[in-house]
Design brief:
There is one protein chain. Strand 6 and strand 7 form a beta hairpin. This protein has 19 helices and eight strands. With 374 residues, it is α/β, with parallel strands linked by helices.
Length: 374
C-alpha cells in the first residue's frame, strides 16, 4: 500500500522515512536543475549516506537506466523531480533486482518477478503523476516503451506544494497540460472504470480551474496545491485506464522536434477532442456508441461546451492562455508521414475509443500531409 503525505513542507518526511527504514545508504535520483531550484536540496541536507544520480535525459534511455544500475547498491531509493526522474528511479530500482538483462523486460520477453528496495517519490512538478503509477517510460533504439508491474509503484509519496513554486512558467504550462490530457484520456479510454473516471473527473476539474492561475500568478500557493492534487489524481486515473491516442501520437513530436512532452500531447489532444467526437461510426469501445457519445458529452460539459468543434476550440484557447503554441505546423517541421506513423505507440493507440488508421492519422497531422505533398 502506498503511503502519501500531502501538506506544505512534507518533504521533511523523507528524513523520517529513511530513518524508520534503518537505511544507511540512500540512492537519490533527481533532475539536474529542479533539485536546487525547488529547494529540495536544502530541505534534504543532513541525510547521511546519499549518492546522487542525475545522468539521464528528459526522454530517458535504457542505457541511462543501466548506468544508474551500475551505481546502485543501496537500502532505499529517493526520486526527486519530474516524471523522468521518477521513472528512471523506478526502473533502476526494479531492474536491479531481476535475474535477466533489462532489455528482456522492456521488450516483454521476461516478466518481472522481484520487488526492489523501498522507493520514495517526491514530484517537483504538477504534471505526470508518475508518483502514483505502476509503470515507467523508457526509450530503447529510439523507440518509446512502457514497463508495467505492481512492484514498480512507489512505496511512499511526498506531495509538497512548496517544491513547485519555482517551476518556470513554460514548464508549469507543459506539465499541467500533460496532467490535464491524462485526465481527459483516462476518462474516454476503453479501459476506464467508474473508479478511474472519478479520479479523471477530479483531475480535469481541478486543472481546468487552476492551470491559468499558476502560470500567470506563480506564487498562488492554493492554486499550486490544487494543481499538484489534480496531477496526482490524473496519475491514479491512468494507473487504471492508461493513456490513449494523444499520448500515442505525441512521442515522435517530442523526440524528433525537441518539444516537451506535455506540449506535444496538448497539440495532439486539440485534434483528438474533435476526432473522437466526430467519428462515432468507428467506435471500438465494447460498451458501444451511445456510451462513448455520453462520455464525450460529459467531457465537453466539463469544458463548459457543447460539441466537438467548440470543445476543441476551448482546449486550444486554454493552451494559448498558458502560453503554448497551438499549431503543430509552427513547432514541428520536416517530418515525413512514414516517420510519424513509425513513431506512434500502437499499444496506447489501442486504448482510444475510436479506431484510427493511416488515413485518419494523415488528417490529424496536417503538417505531415503538407510535407508529403511537397
Amino acid at each position: 500500500m502506498v503511503e502519501e503525505y500531502f501538506y506544505d513542507g512534507s518533504i521533511e518526511k523523507v528524513k523520517e522515512i529513511v530513518s524508520s527504514l534503518g537505511a544507511e545508504r540512500v540512492f537519490l535520483v533527481h533532475g539536474k536543475n529542479s533539485y536546487e531550484l525547488s529547494g529540495a536540496r536544502e530541505k534534504l541536507d543532513g541525510i547521511q549516506g546519499i549518492t546522487e544520480f542525475t545522468y539521464f535525459s528528459s526522454n530517458p534511455t535504457l542505457d541511462e537506466v543501466k548506468a544508474g544500475m551500475e551505481a546502485f547498491d543501496y537500502d532505499v531509493i529517493v526520486a526527486v523531480g519530474g516524471g523522468s526522474a521518477i521513472d528512471v528511479a523506478k526502473l533502476i530500482n526494479i531492474f536491479s533486482f531481476q535475474e535477466h538483462a533489462p532489455e528482456k523486460y522492456v521488450l516483454k520477453e521476461k516478466s518481472i518477478e522481484h520487488k526492489g528496495m523501498p522507493l520514495i517519490a517526491v514530484p517537483t512538478t504538477a504534471g505526470t503523476g508518475s508518483e502514483s503509477t505502476h509503470f515507467a517510460v523508457v526509450y530503447l533504439g529510439g523507440k518509446k516503451y512502457s514497463v508495467a508491474h505492481e512492484y514498480i509503484l512507489p512505496d511512499h509519496v511526498i506531495l509538497d506544494t512548496e517544491l513547485t513554486l519555482t517551476l518556470p512558467k513554460y514548464q508549469t504550462a507543459c506539465t499541467g497540460m500533460d496532467a490535464l490530457c491524462q485526465g481527459i484520456e483516462s476518462y474516454w479510454s476503453v479501459r476506464s472504470t467508474e473508479n478511474s473516471k472519478e479520479y479523471a473527473r477530479k483531475a480535469i476539474e481541478l486543472i481546468l480551474e487552476n492551470i491559468t492561475k499558476v502560470v500567470q500568478m506563480p506564487d498562488d500557493i492554493e492554486a499550486r496545491r490544487k494543481m499538484l492534487l489534480g496531477a496526482n489524481y490524473s496519475g491514479k486515473a491512468i494507473n487504471i485506464s492508461k493513456t490513449t491516442a494523444p499520448h500515442a501520437c505525441s512521442y515522435v513530436i517530442s523526440t524528433r522536434c525537441g518539444i516537451p512532452h506535455g506540449h506535444a500531447v496538448a497539440l495532439m489532444m486539440k485534434e483528438f477532442i474533435r476526432y473522437n467526437g466526430e467519428n462515432y461510426d468507428s467506435v471500438v469501445d465494447e460498451r458501444g456508441e451511445e456510451y462513448v457519445r455520453t462520455v464525450m458529452d460529459e467531457i465537453y460539459t466539463m469544458f463548459g461546451c457543447r460539441g466537438p468543434e467548440k470543445a476543441s476550440e476551448f482546449f486550444a484557447s486554454k493552451m494559448e492562455e498558458v502560453g503554448l503554441e497551438t499549431s503543430l505546423e509552427d513547432v514541428c517541421k520536416g517530418i515525413d508521414f512514414e516517420e510519424f506513423v513509425e513513431g506512434v505507440n500502437v499499444e496506447r493507440l489501442g486504448n482510444n475509443p475510436v479506431s484510427l488508421n493511416r488515413q485518419e492519422l494523415n488528417k490529424i497531422y496536417p503538417i505531415v500531409a503538407d510535407n508529403e505533398r511537397r
